[in-house]
Design a protein that fits this description.
84 residues; binds heme C; elongated; 4 helices; mainly alpha
Length: 84
Amino acid sequence: MKKRDLITLGIGAAVLVVLWLAPEETTPVLPTDDTHAPFQKVFQEQGKKAAEAFCKGCHGKPGMEFPPGHPDPNRCLFCHKPKI
Ligand code: HEC
Ligand code: HEC
């Protein structure tokens, strides 16, 4: 085997180790359904804060309460990642 092949293998192994050690992502991401698609767009064009301004128009209202134990519901998109 050539030295370059070994380096390539080494880098590949290192990447796998990093992925393996990464904490499991359990927080639901910002959905990409019709309800949330406009906010994905606002996020892309104007950033997190602008998009977050809309969330509480629905979430946290009667009938759409946050689940018990939900963290302080501000800055939604830091935890609920927009999938771009
Ligand atoms: C027009 C009302 C409305 C607005 C505004 C809204 N949502 Fe939602 N959201 C819903 C409804 C209804 C559901 C449940 C059904 C669904 O998944 O679409 C939901 C579900 C969710 C879920 C759960 C997805 C899952 O996998 O369980 C997350 C996370 C979420 N919204 C985040 C957000 C964030 C962050 C914002 C602000 C950028 C936002 N929503 C704005 C109506 C809204
Ligand atoms: C500090 C991180 C954090 C912030 C900030 C945050 N959330 Fe969450 N959210 C979570 C986690 C973790 C869960 C999963 C909790 C669980 O399953 O019990 C969750 C769950 C949800 C769900 C899914 C509830 C369900 O029944 O599936 C919705 C909807 C939601 N959050 C909306 C929001 C909205 C809207 C905001 C902003 C107003 C927000 N969250 C801010 C961490 C966060």
